[in-house]
Amino acid sequence: MLNNTLKAIVLVLSFAACAARAELPADYKMVLLTENFPPFNMAVDDKNFARDDGIDGINAEIVREMFKRANISYSLTLRFPWDRLYKLTLDKPNYALFSTTFTPERQALFKWVGPLAKTGWVLLAAPGNNLTVNSLKEAGQYTIGAYKNDAVSQHLESQGLAPVNALRDQENVKKLTGGKIDLWATTDPVGRYLAKQEGVSGLNTVLRFNEAELYLAINKDTPDEVVQRLQKALDELRNEGFIDEMTNSYL
Description:
11 strands
């Protein structure tokens, strides 16, 4: 009797294993969403709506190659605002969103593929300025430029600092090189990319005060097969140097 029970259990587990490895339907297709967040993802024409080839950026290129290698079809749309895209991905199976910052609070809400890229919050000084600070508290004695209502600016304010906020982060490049601010608080490598667009390079990273990783966040009801194939493809691309190559091409 015990032997028959064990056989039954083994049979059930075998069926479960086969189901877990089952191929996706031939017509399976994912819906990918993103926003303007240069240099990781952005509309070619700088608008707040774009589709497929109208979208470029480091992570957009990585995600395209990842899906190609995993042999999974998709549609790609860039929209605004982020809040709407986030809610759609939470609610709809086979939807995915990038570039999503991974946090412990979000971990259980999605399935994750990544990291696609690493980011950090930094204080930048103008080229040739060898200013040094060891903490945000020390930095408070200087004039710091930031981006209004950005997470970086909000963090500085929560620490008792009073950043001079610009309506567009690009404005801080000229403020920094023109001496109107001593330090620029921004996200790396976003700040370096924006500076490059303004013809400025060689910025000095004075302080790095937060680290984060960007992922492809996938609706929880999406098959595990999708997640596994995409992660395998991404790992292969990283090992082959594709990720570094793509990052360097934009920065």
